[in-house]
Amino acid sequence: MKNVVVITTGGTISTKRGPQFSGAVPLLKGDDFLAMLPRGEYNVSFHDFTNLPSSHITPAMSLDLAQRISGMLLGDDVDGVVVTHGTDTLEESTYLCDLVIESPKPVVFTGSMRIATDVGYDGVSNLMGAIRAAAAEQCRDLGVLVAFNDRLFAASAVQKVHSQAVDAFDAPGIGPLGMLTGNTVRVHTRPAQRQFIPCSRLAERVDLIVATQGADDRQLRASIDTNAAGIVIAAFGGGRVPPWWLPTIQEALTRRIPVVVTTRCLQGICYDEYGYVGEYHDLKRLGVLFAQNLSPVKARIKLMVALGSNPHPQELREWFAE
Is residue 12 annotated as part of the catalytic site, yes or no? Predict the structure, then answer.
């Protein structure tokens, strides 16, 4: 019988309403989940990491979680790890863990969109699916996964695409790696991109700035003036910014503040063949890095991890190589 460890962090999957609260709050812990699960299929043990909504989780806490998971995976008596997590920042925690956990054993995040006292609570089905995936041989060497609504996603690709629906997660342009059908775990493809970045600390002061029509450079200027460790820009289309941003981006680079550019679009990479000011080739000539196939929030996490590992500039550039 496979041994799966479930680490609880809070989130909607652990929330319920109570008479002493004005709304639902995280209350359920490991023993509560254990009582909901069917018995005899796997040896499941629970460890409570924290009990917070994921809007309260920080990247430093996610790194601590990743280190906790890595330690557990070293045990011969652990076949896989499941993490219950709030959905708001699940994609950030999963990707950070994917970057810093090297074990081939499955690590599967899950959560729910409905609280435990709602009709149609999806927490138990999602948790059971995640446990099955964490115990499955076919999920080894896939990196960190997300199990949600009977689908499996790669941490590098998954995004929350709906604020309310139970099928809130998808991987735009890529789709799921596999499906959870009854007791069966089916994996039909593997992650296209995986990286391991050894990291024991984060550079947390990394700012994310979204390019918007007509926006001036105040946010860029604030990042420079407050000594940001790095800047991520969610650019227009194939990697374009307002032309008046270019001098400020150049200043950031001159001051050795790495600037990473990704697209604010749900799909696609940074590239174009335009010749006007502010387009992809202008940014490339300045020396920015491009986070291809990463959402802006994941590009920020990657830059935090990469800078936290204190790399040589060339090594940093190689981690963001196109």
Answer: yes
